[in-house]
Specification:
four-stranded antiparallel β-sheet; elongated
């Protein structure tokens, strides 16, 4: 899902020389939480409802606004936009079109809500369709990445021996382990059932260590599952642009199976 699909396209603006009181009245009239500050046709800042609340109404907008607002583009993934907000400690982003002109505003609340629709409710990891969208975007742009396919070994035996609630705890625990090994810049996915996938742009040395850590699996009381990890370095593919998501999953999952059967 891209930012352009969820942003607010109606933009209201104010000039930096107007009073904060005037800006507050505009926000109230249009029932919005921010105004772009535009002077002589150029965006010079952004004014939020928080700025208005913390500034005396007789001051001018220039005293309260954030100059040179951080922005993103309509083609950015919602996941990347949310990370950008977290990195900069802000609640909204100015969105620009391909020609650089302002085209909308997107808020953290909106992004968090839409990302929740793309995540697995049990583990909080992304669903496979979002992982596919990111992988295809990187392939189209020729950007190298690593793709891991992870299968928990003998998970069915654990369910039969200890019961499904323990199996669910193992699934959630392994998802937590994935989050502890990787970070917000990586895309973590519960692919299906006891299968997981990771897309990362980190260096090979990090991936190699991560594969070793993940292969140890996870324990809940006496129940333990190890993991077989297939690792495909998409950046090493001679013709990355022709790689499909189906081939990506197929090849990494076959590597995972080979590890499970001891062929590698």
């Amino acid at each position: 899902m891209k930012v352009g699909e969820v942003m607010t396209r109606t933009i209201h603006s104010v000039s930096s020389g107007r009073s904060v009181l005037h800006a507050s009245e505009l926000m109230e009239r249009f029932r919005i939480g921010s105004l772009l500050v535009v002077d002589a046709g150029t965006v010079t800042g952004i004014l939020t409802s928080r700025d208005v609340r913390t500034t005396h109404p007789n001051r001018i907008v220039a005293d309260a606004m954030t100059a040179d607002p951080i922005g993103t583009v309509e083609d950015a993934f919602v996941w990347d936009a949310l990370n950008l907000m977290a990195e900069n400690g802000i609640e909204r982003l100015l969105v620009r079109s391909k020609d650089g002109s302002p085209s909308g505003i997107v808020t953290r609340e909106t992004l968090a809500s839409r990302i929740a629709e793309l995540t697995d409710p049990m583990t909080g990891l992304f669903r496979s369709d979002y992982l596919e969208a990111i992988a295809l975007d990187l392939i189209a742009r020729g950007q190298p990445f690593h793709f891991l396919f992870i299968d928990l070994n003998d998970f069915g035996v654990v369910n039969k021996r200890f019961g499904h609630p323990v199996g669910d705890d193992l699934i959630c625990g392994f998802a937590g382990k994935l989050k502890s090994v990787f970070g917000e810049e990586d895309c973590l996915c519960r692919y299906a059932g006891d299968e997981f996938a990771v897309l990362s742009k980190r260096p090979p040395s990090f991936i190699r260590d991560a594969v070793g850590t993940l292969a140890d699996g996870f324990s809940v009381g006496p129940a333990h599952v190890s993991a077989s990890v297939g690792w495909l370095d998409a950046g090493a593919e001679p013709d990355l642009g022709k790689l499909t998501f189906r081939e990506l999953v197929l090849r990494a999952s076959l590597m995972s199976t080979e590890r499970k059967t001891g062929k590698v």
